[in-house]
Amino acid sequence: MARPTGSSFSLVISDAYSGITLIDGQPTMPGLGYENFKRITTNFQHTIPENAKLRIPLRPPAGMSRQDFARKLMEKAQNFTSYVSPYSAPKHVHGSRMRPGEYNSSSYIAGLL
After folding, report:
1. Which of 1, 5, 69, 103 is the most exposed place for a label (fewest CB within 10 A)?
2. Number of structural domains found in the chain
3. Alpha-carbon gap, residue 25 to 39, rounded angstroms
4. pLDDT one digit per residue (tens) for the chain, 113 residues
5. CB neighbours (10 Å) of residue 35?
6. 4 assigned to some structural domain
7. Which domain of life is it from (predicted)?
8. Residues 6+ apart with CB under 8 A from 87
9. In angstroms, rounded to a whole number, what is the distance separating the alpha carbons of residues 79 and 60?
């Protein structure tokens, strides 16, 4: 699935054994049926977008190894129920906030973490 252009938060897990896994929540496109259109779904990719603007390294919680942290995040992403919650684009990139029941790539990543 091609990711839309614009602001998007993604989680990148990279290690010597598995390579790169990029995880984010994106809206579904019309090709998956009207009932699934614009509902948030887990998106897995194995490359980092060339136009990535900001990278923030994450540390695992105290007492958890990097490998366990990565494994837990992958499990949460794989267990996410896609096509249930509607995808909501913010009204403005700056200065707006999501209301209860609204989800986008930012709130998807916040939920995984």
Report:
1. 5
2. 1
3. 10
4. 444 455 677 888 887 777 888 888 877 766 666 666 677 888 888 888 777 777 788 899 999 998 899 889 889 888 887 777 777 776 665 666 767 777 777 777 877 88
5. 8
6. no
7. Bacteria
8. 25, 26, 27, 28, 38, 39, 40, 103, 104
9. 20
Overall pTM surpassing 0.70 (yes/no): no
- Minimal CA–CA distance to 24: which of 37, 41, 4? 41
Determine whether 69 is exposed, middle or buried from the number of CB atoms within 10 Å of its CB (0-12, 13-18, 19+): middle
Is 66 contained in some domain? yes
Report if residue 81 sits inside a domain.
Answer: yes
Q: Which domain holds residue 23?
A: 11-112
